[in-house]
Amino acid sequence: MLIKTLTGILLCLLLTITIYAQSKFTISGYVTEKGSKETLPGATLYFPQLKTGTTSNNYGFYSITLAAQDSLMMVCTFIGFNAQQFTLALDKNIFINIELSSAIDLQEVVVSESRIERVSEQAQMSMIEIPIKQIKEIPALLGEKDVLKVLQLMPGVQKGSEGSSGIYVRGGGADQNLVILDDAIVYNVSHLFGFFSLFNGDALKSVDLIKGGFPARYGSRLSSVIDMTMKDGAKDKLHGEGGIGLISSRLTLEGPILKDRSSFLISARRTYIDILLAPLLNSNGQSNGYFFYDLNAKANYDFNYNNKVYLSGYFGRDKAYGKYSDSFSKNNFGLGWGNATATARWNHLFNPKMFSNTSVIYSRYKFLITQDDTYGNQTFKLRYFSGIQDATLKYDIDYLPNEHHTIKAGMISTYHAFTPSAIVIRDVDQDAESIKKINANENAIYLEDHIRYKQKLQINAGVRFSHFYSQKENYINPEPRLAIAYKYKRGLTFKTSYAKMNQYLHQLSNSGVGLPTDLWVPATGIVKPQSSEQVALGAAHDFKKAPIAITIEGYYKWMNNVLQYKEGASFIEIADPDDAGNTENNWESKVTNGKSWSYGAELLIQKKEGKLTGWIGYTLSWTQMQFDELNFGKKFYARFDRRHDFSAVGIYHLRNLEKDKQGITLSATWVYGTGNAITLPIGTYHVNSHNITPNAVGDIYSNYVSEYTSRNGFRMAPYHRFDIGIQFIKQMKRHVRTWEFSIYNLYNRKNPFFYYISNDYLGTSKLKQITLFPLIPSFSYGFKF
Question: What is the largest distance, in Å, between two alpha-carbon atoms of the chain?
Answer without folding.
Answer: 114
